[in-house]
User: Fold this.
Amino acid sequence: MDATGSRVSDGRAGYRRSAGSPKGEARRRELLSLVTDDLAVNGLVEFSLRRAARAAGTTHKVLLYYFDGVEDLLTQAVLQLRQRRIERALAAATHGPAGRSLADRVRAMWPTLIIGESWVLDQAIGLSLYDADRYAHLSSEASRQYLPALLSLCPPQWDDQRKVQVSELILAVLRGFLIEWRTSADAGGIDAGFAALIRALESEEALTRPQKEGESRRELAEG
Assistant:
């Protein structure tokens, strides 16, 4: 049963006649955006169909027409919230002159990861750890959302394996920094760790940076 007292399975069976039409999909996106806005402000605690319906200016039955129940709605809202964060981070990473290093791009992303709805996404990770049987997907989906963005920032001359390896490294380290920020707000410790991450990325890039013609000639002469 969901928070409204109705069985989610019953609600799912009676709807969906036109939710997949272009008009229905537009309405679904509108409702999801409104629910996501509410989630960004009020978080996951006491999230329910009734609360979501109030935020969307509709009824819980209408939400059940477009979504497979309260957990599906929560999942979709978390995914959209995370996508907003990704778009904001990418905008910061790609702003400025072309040819910026990966290290510079990652450094530019960090401030965008700790503002706005970041605390709600941290709640989602905590929920997935607290009740993995029901909510593990909130964490597993995160990697699938973040990785394409990180891969797109890697130097184009890297092969796919190197891009994946470095992107996974960045993702794991930034997750650790986010936990540190949320639990202790130890800015000094995070700065120290970030400096080490930047050095690692700069070293990785230096190994595969295309050489300029003058540099190649000088190396040949020295050899």
